[in-house]
Amino acid sequence: EEKFEPTVVEFLDPNFEALIREILEKPEGDITDVDLWDITHISGVDRNIVSISGIEHCTSLQILTLRVNSITNIEPLSELVLLDHIDLQNNLISDIKPLYENTGIGIGNDLVYLYNNPLNDKSILEYKPLIQSRGVKFYSNAQLSGQEKFIFKI
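-> structure tokens emitted (154 positions)
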């Protein structure tokens, strides 16, 4: 008979770890994957968060609000299939492929807010329409790089 052992989760970003510790009300000691399983809502606005590595263990996560941070990589969100409200406005995200790869995004009334992120052309032209085609309300104001260059020439 196999015995389940909780796994210690290492966070790359001390500011993100501090936020998780607040949510868990666990100021010190190891944080395990089991601790993270019950988190359904993460909200941390203007917390100087650069990396959300470790969030992939928050398998019950439904609402993610991390506005006004410096997040670039959202790959850890690709497996969090219960996510239905994602607010990552005012970050440094260019690649939204992980949201497209997340098969749970588009089941139900999902919302994605990505205003003021430097989305790349592939994200704007390919992934955003594919995500929207699943019925997701997707809000962003990113411009294509070619259009931006054109505007500056005028």
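The first helix runs from residue 14 to 24.
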